[in-house]
Amino acid sequence: MEFEDGVNDVALVDALMKEQLVMRPLSIACTPADQRSGLIMGVGMLSGETLLHEVKRLKTALLKLLKNI
């Protein structure tokens, strides 16, 4: 998931971790010439209703956190 310029993905990941939502910031995987901000998400161990539940939790958390930016 990629964010618009100005979104601090590192701070956002820290806040998501407090909600037990484990992500990685995209910016740490980018080169200095590539200043993208976003989330690296892995859902390989989730399926069915569990995956749907976690997606809903992520949506709720992101809407709350991004509203404050």
Please characterize this protein's 3D structure:
This protein has 69 residues and is mainly alpha-helical. The chain has one domain. The protein has 2 helices and 2 strands; from the N terminus they run H-E-E-H. It has a two-stranded antiparallel ribbon with strand order 1-2. The protein is globular. The two termini are 17 Å apart. The mean pLDDT is 88.
Features of the shown structure:
single chain; 69 residues; mainly alpha; 43% helix; 6% strand
Summarize this entry quickly.
The protein is mainly alpha-helical and 69 residues long.
Number of beta strands: 2
Helical content (DSSP H or I, runs of 4+):
40-55%
Spatial ordering of strands, largest sheet: 1-2
Q: Tell me the series of helices and strands, N- to C-terminal.
A: HEEH
Largest sheet: 2 strands, antiparallel
Structural class: mainly alpha
Rg value? 12 Å
Query: Could you give the distance between the termini?
Result: 17 Å
Catalogue the unreliable spans.
Answer: none
Estimate the global geometry from the Cα principal axes: globular
Mean pLDDT: 88
Strand percentage? 5-15%
Tally of individual helices: 2
Q: How many domain regions?
A: 1
Provide the fold topology:
Layout: H1 9-18, E1 24-25, E2 39-40, H2 48-67
Antiparallel strand pairs: 1-2
